[in-house]
Every structure is written in C-alpha cells, then in structure tokens.
Write a structure and sequence with these properties.
The protein is mainly β. It is 4% helix and 41% strand. The strands form seven sheets. It has a seven-stranded mixed β-sheet with strand order 8-9-7-2-1-12-13, with no helix packed on it. The protein is elongated, with a radius of gyration of 25 Å. The N terminus is likely disordered.
Length: 303
C-alpha cells in the first residue's frame, strides 16, 4: 500500500522545484556509477546526496526514494538537521555511516530518473548520459534547478557544491556526432542553440565532414532538424538581419533550419572565417578581407 500511495504522489505532483520544495529535503548531488573497486568500506558505491533546505530538523522516513517511478524504497528513520547533508549509498546491506546510510538497494540498470517523494512535493534528477565513476552530477548553485557535472577534486559528497570554474560541463553525450573545426558552426537563434555542421566519426582512419542540423532549448537535449541542408559544411555560419546564414561560394539563409533559401553567388572562396561588426559582415581567408552589408555582395578591403 505504501508503494501504491507513493506512485499516486508521483502522478499528482509537477516535477519542478517550487518555493515549497526548496524548504524540504531535496536531491542535491548524485554519483550513479561505482568504481571498479567499490566496497562498503571505502564508500566507492553509487550515492545520492540529500540536503535539508528547511530551517527545521526533518524526518527522512517521511520521504520515499524512487527509481523511474517503478521501484520505491522507504528511507531509514533518521532525522536530518537544518541545512545539513545526508548521503544514501546504494549497496548490499543496511548500515548507518557517519554522514549517511548504506541501504540494501542496487540502482536498477537503465534507470533514467531518481525521485525523492514526500506528501508535499517531489525532488528529482535525471541521470545524465555518459557520466563516469570519476564524476558526480549536482545542483549549482545549490537550491537552484541548474545541474552540472563535477569531476575529480570537485566531487563533494556531504559538502556544499562549490564553484567548479568558469566553464561548467552540462552534458557528456549528445545525439549529434562529434563536431569539427568548421567556422562558426554553432549559433544562438530564435531562443535555441543550433549545431549546423560536423563530421561522422567511423574510426581513426575513417571520418568525413557532413552538414546536419540539430537544435536545442537547453543545450542538453537535441532534436535533428535537417539531415541534409544544401550548404557546404565548411561554410561560415552567422546570424544576420533576422536569419541564420551559411556563407561560402554561395549564400543560404533560413529561419527554421529546415528550409534554406539560396541567395546567390558571393565570389568568396572556401575555408574562410566570418564575423559581424557594427551591422556589417566581414570575411577573412588567407590574407584577404571582405565586407558585406547584405551577405551576398562583398567588397574586398585587403588582398
């Protein structure tokens, strides 16, 4: 009956952080992959770090852990002090530790989402693709709904998630193939991030450039928009005059990534670089510099 009630809670609660959810115990950081030498003694087991965001001491037994809303696990009868952390290790025994507990539960293979359920709200985290045993995945800043990867020395079970540096990894694996060094191959347009070219990697000896278009609203989850646009993969990609442009020996433009309008020949060569400055487009290739006000007609400034 308890599991049935927990399932109803999952069905009834919106899976977003509200002000109310920020005041209870929440999932703060996870490391879902064990090391090869995992054991209860050195605590290399997979773990889930919880944080009590309330000003009150709360009973952990009022919460249920769930994996994909299929497996439901009651939590031990332990009280977690205000603003303190508590670690749940997933092992093969039930045992209290100094800053958490080992519970006799294994993370089911293929689990995509972990929930922490109470009568009032649900905290949740999606297990990111490609996460390794040396990484964790946690909220940063804490109490926000932004999640990033922490690696090596920045993994902090039982401690505050500290600033990881100016560059923060948000995805280990995406649906598109590896991208190469084509100029300006990523754009921000229409409140989305666009990847407009790349290469298909078959092996160290076999890979080739390709034009394929993916878009994303969060840079984590990507949708294939167009598998075969008409432009060369080594075009210059840029947002100009309310359009996405692919500019090389011929110029193309699009507003949706699906339909590309051919705008004509440019007189430019292959393999250049482009930028936008003061409302005008500039293109460089070798020692040559060109300028354009319409992306089609180009004036040579330097030879």
């Amino acid at each position: 009956m308890m599991y049935g009630r927990a399932l109803l809670r999952v069905s009834a609660i919106l899976f977003t952080f509200s002000y109310a959810s920020a005041q209870g115990i929440v999932i703060n950081e996870i490391r879902p992959v064990a090391t090869l030498t995992a054991s209860a003694e050195d605590i290399d087991l997979p773990w889930i770090e919880l944080r009590n965001n309330s000003i009150d001491t709360l009973a952990l037994s009022d919460y249920t852990l769930s994996f994909d809303s299929i497996l439901f696990v009651p939590l031990p009868d332990i009280r977690v002090a205000s603003f303190q952390y508590f670690i749940i290790w997933l092992g093969e025994e039930n045992r209290r530790e100094e800053n958490g507990s080992i519970i006799n539960v294994k993370l089911p293979e293929g689990t995509e989402r972990i929930y922490l359920i109470s009568d009032h709200f649900t905290s949740q985290v999606s297990i990111p693709l490609g996460i390794t045993a040396t990484e964790s995945y946690g909220q940063y800043p804490e109490t926000s709904d932004e999640w990033i990867f922490f690696s090596d020395t920045t993994v902090t079970p039982g401690l505050r998630n500290e600033y990881p540096g100016p560059w923060q990894k948000i995805a280990n694996k995406t649906s598109f193939s590896p991208r190469d060094s084509s100029p300006n191959g990523v754009l921000v347009f229409d409140n989305k991030v666009w990847v407009l070219e790349g290469y298909k990697y078959i092996s160290d000896e076999m890979h080739y450039s390709t034009s394929d278009i993916y878009s994303s609203v969060d840079a984590v989850n990507w949708e294939l928009v167009n598998s075969n646009p008409p432009y060369d993969p080594y075009s210059v990609f840029i947002v100009f005059d309310g359009w996405m442009w692919a500019i090389e020996q011929r110029a193309y433009r699009s507003k949706d990534g699906i339909t590309w309008e051919e705008m004509g020949a440019t007189g430019l060569s292959l393999g250049g670089r482009g930028t936008l400055h003061d409302g005008k487009l500039y293109w460089t290739g070798g020692s040559s510099v060109y300028r354009s006000e319409d992306a089609i007609t180009w004036q040579r400034l330097l030879n």
